Amino acid sequence: MLRPDAFPALTGAPALPATRAVVQGLGSALPERAVGNDEVGALLGVDDAWIRRRTGIASRRRAGEGDSTTTLATTAALAALDDSGLTPDDVDLVLVATMTPDFATPQVAPLVAAAIGAGGAGAFDVAAACTAWLSALGAAASFLETGRATCAVVVGVEVMSRVIDPLDRSTAILFADGAGAAVVTAGGEGGVVGPLVLGSDGSSAEHITCPVGGVVAMDGHATFQRAVTAMCESALAVCDRAGITLDDVDLVVPHQANSRIIAAVGERLGLDPSRVLDVIEHSGNTSSATIPIALAGARADGRLPDAGNVLLAAFGAGLTWGAALLTFGTDA
Amino acid sequence: MAATATPEAVETTVVKSLAELGADEAALTRDAEFEALDIDSLDLAELAQIVEEEFGVVLKGPDVSDLKTVGQVIDLIVAKAV
User: Fold this and answer.
1) What is the pLDDT of residues A4-16, one digit of tens each?
2) Are A185 and A151 spatial neighbours (Cβ–Cβ below 8 Å)?
């Protein structure tokens, strides 16, 4: 059952900030090496048909010799900057969402800032598993709306292959490597960041865990149920706060966790599949990178509306979850 | 308010839900095996969510992982509702 009170009610209509955060550029970076289901399945005693049926995935990218979290993040960031028409000199904030940094310290963000030529920018990583890019978008938007930054690069990047057991059927078929990024500015033309909600349930943390230096363990049954419920409730809360209904949403972009979860979210929300983005087939589940990768792809395919609403929804370990609205075609 | 989990009510809900999840309704007999119906563990996770909402009966992953037939899941739900 979806709870209408899943998120605390805001008292009074929240005033829109005078300065809006606007997504102006999108980009992605996927490792070159594509790994098909036959290769992954061979170690698990399952075949291509089994994996496709269960996940919707046909192939996924895996980091190669020259790839690291930092290099993938940097490439995605540069692609987003290029798409935005802005330059590294404009950037004063770099946020990197990841659960697979290259080092315990330094964090990925300052390394990316230096690599893209924005050395000196404020820079920090954001950790909230698969929800982290949404969390980072919220943080960036808040900095931009309050005059604490003017131009942010928000990256989601994972080298999940480092933390996956190739012999664990529940995770080895799903997770993948890659990076996506957005350039978000104070004002300007693009996707205006509207209401954004975040939630968590640490009492259910045991469903998805990964000890430091270990591998991800996931209860697929519980994760499926919690992910569908949380993403639906978050999506409805964001619509409610924006004063719109799902009928006003042109495209829903859920975290690309599993095609079955994406489909269940769409069904529960009563949405035609054409309005729910599912691009997991050849990119797999790249955790915090799935949403920016999906957005960058949607931009390239012309699927983002020139004027309209795009609703993002995420769910991840923690448990954590959230949703956000991007509105295109309005003045900021 | 949860509905009463009589064997008849549970069977109706299970059959209807499995059909909605893609199973061939004509094939949904008590002896029908999930594997033959192409019902997998994620379908059972969705079924479990429907059953919890309808009857208040909680089915966790380990509860369903060994179930093989439609009849077995119906019986489990009825047993847990008591």
Assistant:
1) 888 887 766 567 8
2) yes
Question: Which residues of B have a CB under 8 Å from any CB of A?
Answer: 38, 40-42, 44-46, 48-49, 53, 60-61, 64-65
Nearest to A69 by CA among A151, A7, A159: A159
pTM of the model: 0.96
A115, containing H or E segment = helix A108-116
Q: Provide the 3-class DSSP secondary structure of residue B21.
A: coil
pLDDT tens sequence across A204-227 = 999 999 999 999 999 999 999 999
- Count of other CB atoms within 10 angstroms of residue B60: 13
Which residues lie closer than 8 Å to A265 by C-beta, 6 or more apart? A227, A228, A231, A232, A235, A252, A254, A276, A313
Verify whether residue A282 is a known catalytic residue: no
With b for 16 or more beta-carbon neighbours within 10 A and e for fewer, the A209-224 pattern comes to ebeeeebbebbbbbbb
Distance from the first to the final alpha carbon of chain B: 16
Q: How many CB atoms lie within 10 A of CB A32?
A: 10
